[in-house]
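User: Once you have settled down, look closely at the record that follows, taking as long as you need, and be ready to discuss the fold:
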Amino acid sequence: MNRLANEFTAAQRRVFDRYTNFLGSLQPTFNSIPVAFERRRNSGHQLAVLAKDSRLKNAPFNTRYLQELWGRTEEAKRLCSTYVEDLATFARESLETTRRTSRNEPVGQVDFRLYSLSRSPTWKLFPPKDVRDLVHELFLRFDELKAAIQQLKYTITELYVESFGLKSVFTRAMDHRTCNCHPQPTVAEELFRENNTAPVWDLAYSSRDAVVRAAEYKADIAVLFDGFASVNSQMGLFIEEMYQRIEGAINELLRAKSVSRLGELNFKLGATIEGANECMAMMDHVESWLRK
């Protein structure tokens, strides 16, 4: 199995969870900014305004994507487990048929009803008429799995790209002035001056001073953005590896459809199982990591 399969750690999971929590806290934090502006105006300062940024609207969607990622991965794992089992059973039964006949037995002369897959209650297209139809059914099932993994790839990529936009929105807002007559305090500093506007965040601050807290808060979030980008990038590579394994298995099944002898079919099925088992092991690893 690829070395990437063993690289996800508890520390990376904490980054994943903290980033999810941060996204969930963004809207309440931004809702407090007008309160901070009004507080400054009531103190005799010129009212400041923070221009709206449409990228902030992505935060709730990204939060939901992250919260649902385990469920989507679990569903992909379920498909993978089911279809790998179908494949393994089919390959085992093909070997048993070969032992009763011959490696040179023409595939077209093998009774497809010898395979338990022929008794499946559901079909992706139509009920089989021969062994090649059964192989095609396996191909369609693994193609469905590939689509599920591809959706995971898309989600991870979207989260990666949008994290940079959210980082820009957050940084600009926290550094924005809170009145039009003075450059200080910044939004972050003013938010921390009162408990009712202070961002809710899991950080042990070194001081009760608003300026210190604001600086530590911004620094921690900056590190979090970088950490999430790193974890997300690794997840993207990991899922790409899974995708390549399944694509390789699918290509072997396509080749298996065109073989003429049982011995050739067994060889192609063996190559398919190898890639499918690697994908299953990787899927199990990432699903377990997300489930903790």
About this structure: The first helix runs from residue 10 to 42. Residues 135 and 205 are 61 Å apart (CA to CA). The chain has six helices and no strands.
